[in-house]
Amino acid sequence: MTCARCGQSLEPQTGKRPAWPGSLDFSPGVRLTARELEVARLVAQGLANKEIAAALRISPGTVKLHIKHSLFKVGLENRVQLALWWVWRELRAPAA
Predict the structure, then answer these.
(1) Distance between CA atoms of 65 and 41, rounded to whole angstroms?
(2) d(CA 66, CA 43)
(3) What is the pTM of this model?
(4) CATH number of the domain enclosing 82
(5) What digits encode the pLDDT tens for the residues 43-92?
(6) CA 50/CA 42 separation, integer angstroms
(7) How many domains does the chain contain in total?
(8) Distance CA 16, CA 38 (A)
(9) What pLDDT band is residue 36 in, cutting at 50, 70 and 90?
């Protein structure tokens, strides 16, 4: 499946959706763009799409598209799961 607006593949990169939350894939195969990661971080902070749009100086529609792409790439179903994924990702990151 591809996005009608930008043509980007919306298929989860693992080929199927992982079971939540035990088998989420944090391997290099799951790649979000820098902007998708930035939007995910702001979703995890509890911001609404309009607030994210204002913070990043993009349209709310673009925010919605970044969220949609992120959900499909990681194999999630909603923004709450995306927020939890972001927090879990940050907790698993090696200490700098």
Answers:
(1) 15
(2) 11
(3) 0.71
(4) 1.10.10.10
(5) 999 999 999 999 999 999 999 999 999 999 988 999 999 999 999 888 88
(6) 11
(7) 1
(8) 25
(9) very high
